[in-house]
Amino acid sequence: MPDRSLADWLQLLESRHPSEIELGLERVAEVWSRLLLSPELSQQKPPLAITVAGTNGKGSCVRSMQALLLAHGYTVGAFTSPHFLAYNERICLAGQPVSDQVVVNAFEQIEAVRGEISLTYFEFGTLAALVVFYQAGLEVMLLEVGLGGRLDAINIIDADVAVLTSVALDHCDWLGHTRTLIAREKLGIARPERPLIIGEQDYPEDFHLLVAETGASALFAGHDFTYTQGQTFSCSVQTKAARTQFDGLEGPGLLPLNKTLAIQALLSAGISLNAQGVRSALQGLSLTGRQQQLQFRGVKIILDVAHNPAAAEVLALGLPDVEGKTLAVASVLDDKDWSGIIAPMASVVDEWNLAEISDSPRASKGQSLLDLLYNAGQSGQLHSSLEAAFLKTVEAATTADQIVVFGSFHTVASVLKLIMAEVSFE
Questions:
Q1: Exposed, middle or buried, 286 (CB in 10 Å: 0-12/13-18/19+)?
Q2: For 298-326, what is each residue's pLDDT tens digit?
Q3: Could you say which of 251, 282, 313 is where a domain stops?
Q4: 3-class DSSP assignment, residue 40
Q5: What is the CATH number of the domain that holds 16?
Q6: Long-range contacts of range 373-381, CB-CB < 8 Å, 24 or more positions apart?
Q7: Is 43 found in the same domain as 191?
Q8: Is residue 252 part of a domain?
Q9: Does the pTM of the predicted model rise above 0.85?
Q10: What is the CATH number of the domain that holds 408?
Q11: Is the dihedral of CA 250, 279, 406, 329 positive or negative?
Q12: What is the domain range of residue 175?
C-alpha cells in the first residue's frame, strides 16, 4: 500500500465514491464487522456510546457532554461533522483533534479490509473515528449523526443512550417533507429499553407514537427534565434514584437546552456528575460557529452556521443589541430554504452582503440568493466571493456595528480561514 498523507487520503476519498451522500447501513456495517475481527480491534472493549441526532443543536450537545466528561475525569472521544479548518476536528480525543498520522493509520486499516466495498467520504470518516476510539480504550464515545439517523453510518453502533435535540425541516429531499417523517428518521438511533433523551418540545404529528415504536425509555424536555433561561440557569434532571437539581449554571454561549440535554444524557448513561464539576465544565463553554463572537479589525463579528429557518430564528433572537447596524454576510447551499432563513433575520439585519459558496458543487447561485432576498422585501449586494463580501463589509463597518456571518458551515469556514490567516500572520 503506498504511503499517503492525510491530504492525499482525503482527495482520494472525495474522488472515489460517485455520490457525496448514500444513505444505508449495509456496506458500512459489513466493513465495520470485518474491522472488529482484525487484530487491532478484536480484543478491544467497546466504549459506552452516546449518539446524538437532531436538526439543530447536535454539536452543542456533544461539546457540552465532552466538557462535562473531561471535568469529571472520564476518557472521551467525540466524532462530529463537518469541520471548519482541518479534517482532524472531526475526531477528538480528550477534547483535542487527533494528529494526521492517527487518522491515516485508521484509514489504512479500513482500506486493508474493505475489499470491493465502496464507501462514501463520510462513511470512511465514521469508521476511522470508531477505529480511533476503540483503539484508544476510551470509557465514552460521543457520536454526532451526519444526516437523519436511521440510515446514517453512525447507526451501525447500538447507542447506549440516544439523544434527539430537535426536529425541523431540513434535508427534506433525503428525510421527507414533513416534520413527522423527519422525526421518524432521526428516532432511528434509539434502541429498545435504552434511554432516549428528547429535546424537541414542539412535537410533530404522531410524535409520541413514533417514540413509543422505538421501544426506548424516553425522557422528554419540559416534562421529565426541565431547565430555566437567562444569564444563569438551573436544570432539574432525572437519575435512577431521584430528580437532581443543578443551580447557578452559566447561560451565555451554548443554549441552556443543549447543556441540559448533555447533563441528562450522561446521567442516563450512569455517569456520575457533581454540582461543582458541572458548573465549572459549562462555564464559558462555546463552540466554533455557534453564535461565536470575536473581534476583527476593531469590528465585532458573530459567526453562526445557521442553515435552516429554525436555526435562523434562534440566531435572530440571540443577536446582541448594538448602537450601530447589524450587517449580514451570508450564503447557503442550494437545498436550503433561503427564503425561510431570511424571514426571521429580516427584522434584525440592516444590510445584506451575499456571495456564492466557492467550495461546494451544491452552492446556491448568487443571483438566486439576491432574487429571493428582494422577494422578501430586502435589499442587498452580491459580491464576487464570500471573502470579498466579508472584507468589504468590514471596511464599511464602524466600531458601533456588528457583522453576522451565517447560512452554512461553508460560509463560516471561508470567513474563519480569512480571519485566522490574518491573526496568525500578525
A1: middle
A2: 999 999 999 999 999 999 999 999 999 99
A3: 282
A4: coil
A5: 3.40.1190.10
A6: 373/342, 375/339, 376/339, 376/342, 376/343, 376/346, 377/346, 378/342, 378/346, 378/349, 378/352, 379/352, 380/328, 380/351, 380/352, 380/353, 380/354, 381/351, 381/352, 381/353, 381/354
A7: yes
A8: yes
A9: yes
A10: 3.90.190.20
A11: positive
A12: 6-282
Where does a domain end: 236, 264, 282?
282
CA distance 260 to 199: 9
The pLDDT tens digits of the residues spanning 32-72 come to 999 999 988 888 899 999 999 999 999 999 999 999 999 99
Q: Which of 34, 245, 258 has the alpha carbon at shortest distance from 166?
A: 258
Residues 112, 38: Cα–Cα separation, whole Å: 10
Per-residue confidence (pLDDT) for residue 426, from 0 to 100: 41
- Give a yes or no: residue 287 inside a domain: no
How would residue 424 be classed by pLDDT, with cut points 50, 70 and 90? low
Q: Is residue 318 part of a domain?
A: yes
Closest to 308 measured CA to CA, from 408, 185, 204 = 408
Number of domains in the chain: 2
Same domain, 411 and 371: yes
> Does residue 261 sit in the same domain as residue 340?
no
Q: Would you state the cell numbers that stand for residue 400, as one nine-digit string?
A: 458601533
